[in-house]
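Dear Dr. H.,

I hope your travels went smoothly. While you were away I took the liberty of generating a structure for the chain from your last submission, since the lab meeting agenda had it listed for discussion. I wanted you to have the full record in hand beforehand rather than looking at slides cold. The sequence, exactly as received, is reproduced here:
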Amino acid sequence: MITRREAIIAIGGLAVAARGFAADELTLKGELVCAKCGLNKPDATECQDVLLVKDATGKTTEYYITKNKVSQESGEACTQSIPATVIGTVSTKDDKTWLTASKITKH
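The corresponding predicted structure, in token form, is as follows:
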């Protein structure tokens, strides 16, 4: 049987672990555009949302939005430039920065 103290320690450990996972998510604000239609990327063969985020110096970083349920429900930017806030995790693949969204809010 588990004692009350062991249960409290276990619950506390889970709370710390949950915060660790949440810390991996970022909130990024920028403009959603299409890599093919809006940015005219030569390697884009189909519509692909990209979040353009400017830093304090004015440098723009491109975050390609991973196609998942959240991005599909949000809809594609295509020929539009849409102000948006995206919450998700960032990874790098094929020399591109990818953002897997857990939430997309268009403004």
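Two observations you may find useful: The chain has a mean pLDDT of 86. The helical segments are 4-22, 69-74.

With kind regards,
E. W.
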